Amino acid sequence: MIQTFDAESLKAICKQLAKKDSDIKHIISSYGFPPFWSRKPSFETLVHIILEQQVSLASAKAALDQLKLKIKKVNPYNLLSLTDEEMKFCYFSRQKTVYARNLAEAVISKRIQISKLKSLNDEEVRNKLTELKGIGNWTADVFMMMALNRTDCFPTGDIALINSIKKVKNLPTETTKEQILEIAEAWKPYRTIAAYLLWHNYLQERSKKQKKWQEVQVCDATAAS
């Protein structure tokens, strides 16, 4: 069975999770509901997620924006028209250039049909995506969560998510991914929404720290003047 969510049901599911988990309830009480992070199920989105592998979201967005400036429309044919040097100019590493080109070739040859993924169940989507070089479980999870709006994904390869759950659940730093998955079992079949809440908490906490640091810098500058 394929289960999806939208902006409206996101809030309803958050409330359901809060009834079962006091830590989830605390996140909502402190910071409200998470945003409905959603993207189009497209070639461009998959390229964007590949760019987000192991780098900051800002860096990945800068690379995507540069690519769009270069080729206007991010489609397989336009991407394959670029040389290695042009891809490098768009902030693609050598490895990600290979991954993006491989994806483009797979779409053109119809080894993968992105428009048809929404009709497949989660396991089938994962299998289709991870057959491609450069697309692993993290990329497949993020695509299912944000582009297909599947309710029950939990990307343990996401550092921000892992750090957030450790902080929220007061877990020791050496807690394994397997132990974290055991904790996440309680959120089934809505682990995506739990992940959204944990990301939301992580971003809000980081924003608070940055604001506090900026205030300290202002105070120090004022005192020095």
How would you characterize the overall build of this protein?
The protein is mainly α. It has 2 domains: 88 residues, Orthogonal Bundle (Endonuclease Iii, domain 2); 104 residues, Endonuclease III, domain 1. Helix content is 65%, strand content 0%. Helix 1 crosses helix 2, helix 2 crosses helix 12 and helix 8 crosses helix 9. The longest helix has 34 residues. The model has no long low-confidence stretch (mean pLDDT 94).
SSE succession: HHHHHHHHHHHH
Q: Tell me, briefly, the overall form.
A: globular
Secondary structure tally, helices:
12
Residue windows where pLDDT falls under 50 for at least 5 positions: none
CATH fold-level assignment of the largest domain: Endonuclease III, domain 1
Range of helix content: 55-70%
The secondary-structure class comes to mainly alpha
- Average pLDDT works out at 94
Number of strands: 0
